[in-house]
């Protein structure tokens, strides 16, 4: 089985619509794909309606968190999307996205970058506006060559010159809320130092003690030594070790299924979840 547990659609900052994403996942040979848009479940219904036979969808979201001044992302799988407390927190994060993005545009303008809000809003479309949309605007202007090049201290990285903080969950609260909604939590790309400061292993151990289920080990932003270190940490802490593409469509170069999760780990995630269940494909078309 080929299992990719971290992807994004136009419901947040990907370039594939939810329907396109599941069709592309099937075409890439995946057996299981998780749709984990940032702080949003808005794309789930469209993805389910288009889900091709032979492909299983894991519903989820990537929650924006912060601990001791360090930003991090928490993947939440198979939770009840209507659970009030978790839904309220997701709404608070989403409501803060536009003011935050406007403030980052203002900072870039102060730095001499001729970016305009209308340009960023056009790129974001109906998605939840975020840093990748601003990074795409910087690409259009020739300021950076790739989206990843915009996530540096010079520009949009955590603490960078144009960075602006947003409402974010405490990760301990995120774990508690997701568990209360019947879901499973996996710390996304915990060793991605190129994105900014990362949590020390002692903090990850504290999250594990608080009920964290796993950490994302195999990821494009983890080099070989980082993957080995994270895999060892997962074993030491009794955490599930996942692998995922973090696919964003054409916004990033990574391919669907470039990194995958072991079927036994996937089975344990589904066993622990009580808020929702994986959705098997009902024969949606591979074509639009």
Question: What are its keywords?
Answer:
alpha/beta; 8 strands; 288 residues; 11 helices; 8-stranded mixed beta sheet; single chain; 15% strand; globular
What would a concise description of this structure say?
The protein is of the alpha/beta class and 288 residues long.
| Overall strand count | 8
Helix content: 25-40%
| Helix-strand makeup class | alpha/beta
Q: For the residues shown, what is the average pLDDT?
A: 94
Percentage of residues in DSSP E strands: 15-25%
Q: Any idea what the radius of gyration is?
A: 18 Å
Secondary-structure blueprint:
Layout: E1 3-7, H1 18-27, E2 32-35, H2 44-49, E3 56-67, E4 70-77, H3 84-95, H4 97-110, H5 117-124, H6 131-140, H7 147-150, H8 171-180, E5 184-187, H9 201-209, E6 214-218, H10 224-237, E7 240-243, H11 263-272, E8 279-280
Parallel strand pairs: 1-2, 2-3, 5-6, 6-7
Antiparallel strand pairs: 3-4, 3-8, 4-5
Give an account of the 3D structure.
The chain contains eleven helices and eight strands. With 288 residues, the protein is of the alpha/beta class. Strands 1, 2, 3, 4, 5, 6, 7 and 8 form an eight-stranded mixed beta sheet that branches. α1 links the parallel β1 and β2. The mean pLDDT is 94.
């Amino acid at each position: 089985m080929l299992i990719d547990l971290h992807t994004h659609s136009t419901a947040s900052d990907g370039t594939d619509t939810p329907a396109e994403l599941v069709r592309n996942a099937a075409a890439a040979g995946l057996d299981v794909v998780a749709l984990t848009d940032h702080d949003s479940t808005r794309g789930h219904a469209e993805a389910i309606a288009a889900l091709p036979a032979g492909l299983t969808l894991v519903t989820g979201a990537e929650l924006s968190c912060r601990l001791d001044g360090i930003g991090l992302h928490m993947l939440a799988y198979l939770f009840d999307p209507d659970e009030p407390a978790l839904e309220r927190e997701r709404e608070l994060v989403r409501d803060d996205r536009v003011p935050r993005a406007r403030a980052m545009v203002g900072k870039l303008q102060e730095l001499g970058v001729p970016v305009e809000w209308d340009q960023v809003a056009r790129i974001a479309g109906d998605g939840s506006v975020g840093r990748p949309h601003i990074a795409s605007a910087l690409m259009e202007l020739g300021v950076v060559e790739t989206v990843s090049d915009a996530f540096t201290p010079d520009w949009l990285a955590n603490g960078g010159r144009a960075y602006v903080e947003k409402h974010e969950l405490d990760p301990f609260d995120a774990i508690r809320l997701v568990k209360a909604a019947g879901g499973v939590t996996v710390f996304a790309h915990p060793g991605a130092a190129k994105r900014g400061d990362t949590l020390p292993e002692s903090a990850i151990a504290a999250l594990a003690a608080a009920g964290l289920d796993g950490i994302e080990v195999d990821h494009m932003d983890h080099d070989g030594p980082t993957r080995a270190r994270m895999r060892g940490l997962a074993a030491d802490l009794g955490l599930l070790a996942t692998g995922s593409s973090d696919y964003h469509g054409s916004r990033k170069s990574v391919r669907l299924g470039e990194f995958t999760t072991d079927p036994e780990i996937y089975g344990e995630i589904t066993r622990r979840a009580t808020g929702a269940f994986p959705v098997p494909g009902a024969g949606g078309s591979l074509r639009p």
